[in-house]
Design brief:
The chain is α/β, with parallel strands linked by helices. The protein is 45% helix and 10% strand.
């Protein structure tokens, strides 16, 4: 596993869920904003605005606030700070901080507010928020469904054959015993039949393709099975105080309550129908239906279109033959290498991928698929006894440089098979 990262699932214990790490800790990793700290930042910014420092002027422009150094007031600096943290105004930021502070006080005193009931089910594509929900005071049951549809074949098959196909892929891609992967798959898919046993079911998801593709499947499943329960969804794309939001697993317990209070919506028939339409498109053998969806002007699911665009970016680029993850990986090695594979993954997650979705073992499987070629794109240092894959040094070859530049097409070199949903990508063939 790569260092300093938390995962949605511990892959050594979870036979069907490739772990998806959250971001490296930023100055405010879990979204806890400190009001006194923000006041000090605003006073410092005001001094810099009046001194006409270039960085302060740039920050004002980025925040969309026109200001003259001669007339700059503390309120101006506070507005810029608030907008940098994702708020429309300083009072709205202060109200948010006060609310989060009170939630934190309640949790610390062992007296959190009443949120859900014992007959609520929290459904999540990983285990990363299970403990946080309990700490926050949620009392309902927790169900993990985490088949990573963003990797491997997602064929249009009857459910029993589909589950077997997915389990076969998971076992091979993540080096899991086939019987364990199949048992895990059957258990997760089978557990979905219990949704109607609860009074209230809440789906917790974020904005990337790992989550949103699973959300599409679940909405299609719900649309077909019609469980008799109250259904809601939480879909989060950004969180105040976190500059690069990657996953709900980043959030402190009180921020999970904030998601519950501000992002929880009833699942409507429009959402169910759009989920079914999306799931059909994901499973299609051609990208036509997906392209039609991403050009839609409206969607009842706020983050699905962006996730599908990122999903489609994994199709081979006509010039290089590379999917976006492959291209970014080669670019990172070109810019920073040779370097450990784990550091390549770190660059990808922290700063390079426009919508990161991979877990660490999922990234390692991408590296292995890229090795299925006649002429290698890169070399890996030998794996000594006890060496973790993340520590192996990766170095770009001449073929890798040529492929990255587009003077050589990867599909003319590729000898394996990879999938983007239902689309099979083979040597010199996309079908």
């Amino acid at each position: 596993m790569s260092a300093s990262r938390t995962s949605k699932s511990d892959h050594t214990q979870n036979a069907n869920a490739a772990p998806k790490p959250s971001a490296r800790k930023s100055p405010i990793f879990d979204g806890r904003l400190n009001l006194e700290q923000q006041r000090k930042r605003a006073k410092e910014l005001l001094r810099n605005l009046r001194a006409e420092t270039p960085s302060a002027s740039t920050r004002a422009q980025s925040a969309g606030h026109k200001i003259s150094p001669d007339t700059a007031q503390l309120a101006d600096a506070q507005l810029i700070i608030a907008r940098e943290n994702g708020f429309a105004s300083w009072p709205k930021m202060k109200a948010h901080i006060d609310q989060i502070t009170e939630r934190n006080r309640q949790i610390a005193n062992g007296a959190p507010s009443s949120l859900d009931t014992a007959n609520t089910l929290h459904l999540r594509c990983g285990s990363d928020i299970r403990h946080g929900l309990k700490t926050a005071g949620f009392t309902g049951a927790f169900l993990e469904f985490s088949d990573p549809f963003c990797q491997g074949p997602v064929p249009d098959l009857p459910l029993d054959q589909f589950v077997q196909t997915r389990a076969d892929f998971i076992a091979k891609a993540y080096d899991i015993a086939a019987k364990d992967a199949l048992a895990r798959s059957k258990r997760e898919y089978g557990a979905l039949a219990t949704l109607g046993d609860f009074d209230h079911v809440v789906l917790w998801f974020e904005h990337d393709s790992y989550d949103q593709l699973i959300l599409a499947f679940l909405l299609d499943y719900i649309n077909a099975t019609r469980p008799d329960t109250r259904l809601e969804v939480i879909s989060v794309g950004k969180v105040p105080g976190i500059e690069r939001f990657i996953g709900l697993g980043q959030l402190s317990p009180e921020l999970l309550i904030w998601c519950w209070d501000t992002h929880r919506k009833p699942i409507t028939q429009d959402m169910l129908d759009f989920g079914s339409q999306t799931w059909r498109a994901i499973r299609s053998e051609t990208p036509d239906d997906l392209h039609a969806l991403v050009t839609s002007t409206t969607s009842p699911l706020p983050h699905m279109i962006g996730a599908l665009k990122r999903h489609l970016a994994e199709l081979p680029d006509p010039e290089t033959g590379l999917g976006l993850t492959q291209k970014l990986t080669l670019q990172i090695i070109n810019d920073h290498g040779p370097l450990p594979v784990g550091k390549v993954f770190g660059h990808l997650m922290r700063s390079v991928d426009p919508l990161p979705y991979l877990g660490d073992l999922m990234f390692w499987s991408e590296i292995q698929w890229m090795m299925d070629c006649h002429a290698p794109l890169f070399t890996l240092s030998d794996a000594d006894q006890g060496t973790n894959w993340a520590e192996r040094i990766i170095t770009l070859t001449d073929t890798g440089h040529e492929t990255l530049s587009g003077t050589r097409n990867f599909l003319d070199n590729f000898t394996g098979t990879r999938w983007v949903g239902g689309i099979r990508i083979s040597p010199s063939l996309v079908s």
